[in-house]
Write a structure and sequence with these properties.
Blueprint lengths: L6 E2 L3 E6 L2 E6 L3 E6 L3 H9 L12 E2 L1 E6 L2 E7 L17 E5 L3 E8 L5 H17 L3 E2 L5 E4 L11 E8 L4
């Protein structure tokens, strides 16, 4: 039995430079939470613990940030929710919102993500952007994970930084 591939958030590659892409991300609907139980709270929300008692398909990637010791996780909601009414969570620690469009630099890496891989790839991304004279808007890395925890091989992770590029 084959599992269906989850919907992946769309973006447009504006420029590729070796291992770094400059991408345009259009708006999307996201659910986010800042707490100790980020994944379980968001998973419960998409599993039907919401005001409509409706299951919402899991999508990729999962966004993760860590600012000032606070960990935030975001699920991208399926694209069909962009122009429809949003399913509100029962848990008021979850915020459902429409993200702004933006231009981001991205670098990919494999395997299971950890603080060493994040630091290494963040440094490589900053070095490439500096080399290309691309201005970084936010120096706080956004870590993206595309795979379920049980997937062992060919894992895809990325680090995003918002940048000034082109007309943004």
């Amino acid at each position: 039995m084959f599992s269906q591939q989850p919907e992946t958030q769309q973006y447009i590659i504006v420029k590729s430079m070796d291992s770094v892409d400059i991408r345009y991300y259009p708006p999307s609907m996201k659910a986010k939470v800042t707490s100790n139980n980020n994944f379980s709270k968001l998973f419960k929300y998409i599993s039907g613990h919401n005001l409509d008692n409706t299951k919402i398909a899991m999508t990729t990637p999962v966004y993760m940030t860590n600012k000032g010791g606070l960990s935030t996780m975001e699920f991208v909601l399926p694209s069909r929710y962009l122009d429809t009414s949003v399913i509100l969570p029962k848990d008021n620690s979850i915020e459902v919102y429409r993200s702004k469009e933006g231009v981001f630099a991205a670098i990919s890496y494999g395997g299971y993500s950890n603080s060493e891989k994040i630091a290494k790839n963040y440094r490589l991304l900053i070095e490439k952007l500096t080399q290309e004279n691309i201005i970084v808007i936010s120096d706080s890395p956004i870590v993206l994970s595309y795979d379920a925890p049980y997937k062992v091989f060919n894992r895809r992770n990325e680090i995003l930084l918002e940048v000034v590029y082109g007309t943004n």
